[in-house]
Amino acid sequence: MLIIKILAIIILTPIVGGLLTGIDRVITARMQGRQGPPILQPFYDVFKLIQKEPIEVNLMHRFYVYLSLIFVILTAVILLVGGDILLAVFALTLGSVLFILGGYASNSPYSLVGSERELLQMMAYEPMVLLTGIGFYLADKSFFVSDIVKNDIPAIVYLPGMFLGFVFILTFKLRKSPFDFSMSHHGHQEIVQGITTEYSGKDLAVIEVTHWYEEIIAFTFIFLFFATKNPISILVGIIACFLVYFLEILIDNGFARMKWNFALKSAWIVTAVLGSLNLIILSYFK
Amino acid sequence: MNFVKKSPWILHYDGSSCNGCDIEVLACLTPLYDVERFGIINTGNPKHADILLITGSVNEQNIPIVKQLYEQMPEPKVVVAVGICATSGGIFADCYNIVGGVDKVLPVDVYVPGCAARPESIIDGVVKALAVLEEKQKALSKKKSAVKK
């Protein structure tokens, strides 16, 4: 039974993630007064990339990307099966670190700058992700997702500050403006395509699929804030995910890219104020 | 199924254009023409690109650059020469530094004449390039299966 569940997670997660990306591109286009591509466009892109000629820069360069995908899949499986939230956070971090190593492996100046910026982004968002895990523990007395979804009161009642902080750093994870300075989905930017500059063909497709998994992982966290024993909470959680996604797209279209100094400072201030304060107050009352 | 037709990513390079055609190329991305409808993305990166869009004629100094951009693109790839300068050198043909059209350096698949080429004709040219791209993809997969056998 568990094996079927894991297989379903591995197969369905990128399908949902790809569809979300497609919807994102259509909504973005409509916000800019354009018609936009078909919703299945991300899948066309990935299938095209698989058919293209792979250009190998060196052996390690590709190896890191595939390893990154494996760890991100592991994170998705841990979270969606109902496993330990801390383990999932660490596996996700390992996936991101491997991706950055891939950028360093290519020796291209653009990917080097991209890797350094990605490291700064990780420094900015990682404390908040970890604090969120701890917040769930304080609210529900368990690090296990299967226990968190079984409580009576949704976690957001105890963790409103944590939720706002997580939505703030979600911009990093979804690679949206104003915090997409390491690489973005939009065409022109100052460092070509950041870490992905030297990747082509299948390897680039793997990076894209990894991002789909990451998207779903991010929204699983959002969902967990609303999940309770009550089956209606599933619907509430999904609606909340869509609303947050819409907000992110709106922010993406409304803001220009910020410098890394601002990103790091603002993310840490938000983490310190919203995250820590929430944690301190919660530890007094619970 | 052939997906290269559904998501052609473009690399735009300005040879020695007067910027007239460049502005028309960018006009294709605006809400009025919106080429993203066809899955077309303007990438700034040759390793991600399928179509090389060159505006302006090639001059003595950028021959190695144009060649390198072309070589960095993964197969299958096509070259579209946009504007009369890219097709033949145009009014700059007799200049001391101009080599001529893009076809003096690279194998050009589609020519889009005009001064400046209108966005409609650029989109037409890219759509024509898609047919060439599909053929090249088929030839490539045939070659691959032949090697496997």
TrEMBL record, chain A:
Keyword DNA damage: no
Cellular localisation: Membrane
InterPro entries to which the protein is assigned, alphabetical: ComplexI_Subunit1, NADH_UbQ_OxRdtase_su1/FPO
Top-level division of the source organism's lineage: Bacteria
Membrane topology, as annotated: Multi-pass membrane protein
Record key words, sorted: Membrane, Transmembrane, Transmembrane helix
GO cellular component, one term: plasma membrane
Transmembrane stretches, start-end: 6-27, 63-81, 87-107, 119-139, 155-174, 234-255, 267-285
UniProt cross-references to PANTHER family, sorted A to Z: FORMATE HYDROGENLYASE SUBUNIT 4, FORMATE HYDROGENLYASE SUBUNIT 4-RELATED
Protein name: Ech hydrogenase subunit B
Species of origin: Anaerocolumna xylanovorans DSM 12503
Origin organism lineage: Bacteria, Bacillati, Bacillota, Clostridia, Lachnospirales
UniProtKB/TrEMBL annotation, chain B:
InterPro entries associated with the record: Complex_I_20kDa-like, NADH_UbQ_OxRdtase-like_20kDa
A Pfam entry, by short name: Oxidored_q6
One GO MF term: metal ion binding
Keyword field contains DNA repair: no
Highest taxon of source: Bacteria
Domain NADH:ubiquinone oxidoreductase-like 20kDa subunit, first and last residues per copy: 18-128
Alphabetized UniProt keyword annotations: 4Fe-4S, Iron, Iron-sulfur, Metal-binding
Names of required cofactors: [4Fe-4S] cluster
Family of the protein in this entry: Belongs to the complex I 20 kDa subunit family.
Protein name: Ech hydrogenase subunit C
Organism: Anaerocolumna xylanovorans DSM 12503
